[in-house]
Specification:
Length: 118
């Protein structure tokens, strides 16, 4: 028997999936100094994904006059880190940024799965 999403529940699944991708990308960025990931197609896809996600997040929050969108800024920083990793340039600050991205993913999953519905 197939499962049908209730109204608004499909958006929750998308947010949880994006949170899981955040965690995976944060782990990749954190371990980029020890793993050889230059010219990797997964890193290239994640770079494109995070650039689009960050631009979309920043643009929609600017339209709503919310100028304190830290998640969009973190997505753009993720895209820049992944782009540098793709081209073989890895820096020590990537460990800290990887931890921030993992925390963002865990926070996104936690806030979406603990939301109460009336």
């Amino acid at each position: 028997m197939p499962y049908y999403f209730t109204e608004g529940e499909g958006n929750n699944v998308a947010v949880v999936l994006i949170g899981m991708v955040d965690i995976i990308a944060g782990i990749i960025i954190f371990f980029s100094r020890s793993w050889h990931l230059s010219s990797n197609s997964v890193v290239a896809f994640l770079t494109f994904f995070y650039f689009c996600l960050g631009v979309w997040s920043l643009a929609t929050n600017m339209i709503r006059k919310n100028f304190f969108d830290w998640r969009g800024v973190v997505d753009i920083m993720s895209a820049v880190c992944l782009l540098l990793i793709f081209y073989g340039s890895v820096y020590g600050i990537f460990g800290v940024l990887g931890i921030i991205i993992v925390i963002k993913g865990i926070l996104g999953i936690f806030l979406m799965t603990t939301k109460e519905y009336p």
